[in-house]
Write a structure and sequence with these properties.
Blueprint: E1 23-25, E2 31-35, E3 45-46, E4 53-54, E5 59-62, E6 71-72, E7 77-86, E8 92-100, H1 123-132, H2 145-148, E9 159-163, H3 173-180, H4 182-196, E10 201-206, H5 210-219, E11 226-231, H6 240-248, E12 263-267, H7 268-280, E13 286-292, E14 300-305, H8 310-316, E15 324-329, E16 336-337, E17 351-356, H9 357-360, H10 373-377, H11 384-392, H12 396-401, H13 412-416, H14 423-442
Parallel strand pairs: 1-14, 9-10, 9-12, 10-11, 13-17
Antiparallel strand pairs: 2-8, 3-5, 4-7, 5-6, 7-8, 13-14, 15-16, 15-17
């Protein structure tokens, strides 16, 4: 019997329209815009100025705090300016504008396709290389990876869990990366195991990716300590706490981190980026992005440089259909609708979902019928309808007491609500307010 997490969950229609489509490189346009904040934590400080020449891999943004991540140029050319630019969240943030010229790379980067499996680096050196390369969580959270791989004092990692679930409908970038870069991913896992000083790693893959399960099960035999586990299809299994529960049957306490139960979780795309950083000296300057939608001409998986406008990727998939009602950055469950497609690809851009007009419109909200479905499907064991009500009336002390900050914003409650209530929208607002109150209390 296939494993899964034990609390809540749903199974939306998969719509993996781009499954099996080989990863295609996309040409770099005449200009890129590289935001200086592509991660959770402090934005980077620019270390280039107008007129500077840069190559692919040149450091252009230096991290200024512990929770921060370096930013590198994804192209070679001339810095045009440092100015504000619109990002996927709809805010204007500092960014480096670069005019693209020749495709020159920093000489230290190994651009060959050959697999480098041996490594003599110490755990400290591995972490230093990860930090220097600007690696962040590529499943969407964008938390700086070197920080995540440095457990707090008094805690110790026992198991490394690889999130190869990709449970969001439509998205296939991780799946295709696994099929094309399995050897590199397995080497990357051994590097992280060494950095964490753990002897055990588990790759969790949902059972709708049978080809990936078979491939990794076969290849992992050559790597001691690495196991592969096929999982039941259940959203949001890609959530860290849900994946830990599914694979090792430990539940992370409210307000605690996965390390509190001895687990460290890394997305499979992050693991590949770690391999390239450590073994190839390659900073995080590109990633795989799924461009998809029911009426998209050519759903595809593209290897895109950071800073390329989303419009370039959309054109590569056949352009915006006339029926387009909404464009989402990410998947339909946890992605965010874009105010404009004139924003750049960033380290956290996993997909572009183009939604037809009939599906993009919200249905009229009705009164709660007290059916309890939102409570039943919540993977964190919360009461979404109560949290929405507390947010509506601004009862922040009760919202905090009822663990609003534990919400992982998966959208299962809104998806299943027969009254079409925007539960997650309100909970997000309340969660932000309560987190602000908690921060103020600590200062």
């Amino acid at each position: 019997m296939l494993k899964s997490f034990r609390i809540g969950g749903i199974h939306p229609k998969e719509n993996k329209l781009s499954a099996g489509r080989a990863i295609q490189p996309i040409a770099v346009p005449a200009q890129v815009i590289i935001p200086l904040s592509q991660h959770i934590g402090a934005p980077c400080q620019p270390v280039v100025k107008k007129g500077d020449k840069v190559k692919v891999g040149t450091l252009i943004g230096k991290s200024v705090g512990f929770v921060s991540s370096q930013i590198h140029s994804s192209v070679s050319g001339t810095v045009l300016k440092i100015d504000k630019a619109l990002d996927a969240s709809g805010y204007k943030r500092d960014a480096v504008y670069i005019k693209v010229e020749e495709d020159e790379w920093e000489e230290t980067i190994d651009r060959s396709e050959s697999l480098v499996s041996e490594s003599a680096f110490t755990p400290k050196e591995i972490l230093e290389k990860i930090a220097a390369a600007g690696i962040v969580g590529m499943g969407g959270a964008t938390f700086p990876t070197h920080v995540k791989l440095t457990p707090p004092p008094g805690t110790k990692a026992e198991v490394l869990i690889i999130n190869a679930v990709e449970c969001e409908p439509y998205l296939t970038s991780d799946h295709q990366l696994m099929m094309e870069k399995s050897d590199e991913i397995l080497v990357g896992i051994t590097l992280v195991m060494k950095a964490l000083n753990v002897q055990r790693a588990i790759i969790g893959i949902e059972n709708n990716k049978k080809d990936a399960v078979a491939l990794f099960t076969q290849k992992a035999k050559a790597y001691p300590g690495i196991a592969v586990e096929a999982l039941k299809m259940q959203y949001p299994q890609g959530g860290e706490k849900q994946l830990i529960d599914a694979l090792i049957r430990r539940q992370v306490p409210s307000g605690a981190l996965p390390i509190s139960v001895g687990a460290v979780v890394q997305n499979v795309g992050t693991i590949f980026a770690i391999y390239e950083a450590v073994q190839k000296n390659k900073p995080l300057v590109e990633r795989v992005v799924t461009v998809t939608g029911k009426e998209v001409q050519r759903p595809c998986n593209l290897r895109a440089r950071i800073g390329i406008p989303l419009t370039t990727l959309i054109e590569a998939a056949g352009g915006l259909p006339e029926s387009t009602g909404k464009v989402i950055c990410g998947g339909p469950m946890m992605g965010k609708a874009l105010a404009s497609v004139d924003v750049p690809v960033t380290k956290g851009t996993s997909g572009i979902l183009i939604v037809p007009s009939p599906e993009a419109k919200r249905k009229a909200m009705n009164d709660c019928i007290r059916c309890g479905k939102c409570v039943e499907v919540c993977p964190m064991g919360l009461n979404p309808t109560l949290l929405m009500t507390l947010t509506e009336y601004g009862v922040w002390d009760k919202a905090e007491k009822n663990a609003i900050t534990d919400c992982i914003e998966c959208g299962s409650c809104s998806y299943t609500c027969p009254a079409n209530r925007p539960l997650l929208d309100y909970i997000r607002l309340g969660k932000g307010k309560v987190n602000g109150i908690i921060r103020a209390r600590k200062n």
